[in-house]
Amino acid sequence: GGFHVLFNAGIWDDETVFADTALAATREIKIFLERYGSDRLLFGSDFPFGLPGQELRKIIALKLPEGDYEKIAGVNILSLLKAGGTPAP
Fold first, then answer.
1. How does the average pLDDT of the chain come out, rounded?
2. Which residue has the higher pLDDT, 76 or 84?
3. Do 49 and 43 contact (CB within 8 A), yes or no?
4. Whole-angstrom Cα distance, residue 20 to residue 73?
5. Angle (CA) 36 48 45, round 5°
6. Angle between the N-to-C axes of helices 52-61 and 26-36, in degrees from 0 to 180, rounded to the nearest 10
7. Considering only CA atoms, which of 81, 83, 82, 56 is closest in space to residue 70?
8. I want to staple 20 with a disulfide (CB 3.0 to 4.6 A). Which of 33, 42, 61, 83 is the partner?
9. Is the pLDDT at 89 greater than 70, yes or no?
């Protein structure tokens, strides 16, 4: 359906639903961040269709506060995985 279909449907209004940046336009990423903040946004590249370096440069180009960048680039996924699984022995 694309970003705007999901956005207009209120999919991300559910605080348990996360989004990723894979192949999203910077305009769409900005809209998501303005409405929902950085706590539920995960870096993604959709490799091999998107290139990780190119996708990361989009996030860097947004010139986000350091804390927001860190959440998107790795903290959020690590927190999500920790919350969803049992640590290995």
1. 91
2. 76
3. no
4. 10
5. 20
6. 60
7. 56
8. 42
9. no
Q: Which residues contact 71 (CB under 8 A, 6 or more apart)?
A: 38, 39, 41
pTM: 0.86
pLDDT at 85: 56
Structure confidence by residue, pLDDT tens digits, 38-78: 999 999 999 999 999 999 999 999 999 999 999 999 999 99
Distances (CA, A) of 37 to 56, 59, 61: 18, 14, 17
Please tell me whether residue 21 adopts helix, strand or coil conformation.
Answer: coil
Q: Which residue has the tokens 């809209």?
A: 31
Contacts 24+ apart (CB under 8 A), 10-19: 12/36, 12/40, 15/40, 18/42, 18/76, 18/80
What per-residue confidence (pLDDT) applies to 82?
85
Q: What is the DSSP letter of 55?
A: H
Dig out the tokens for 52 from the structure. Answer: 């990780």
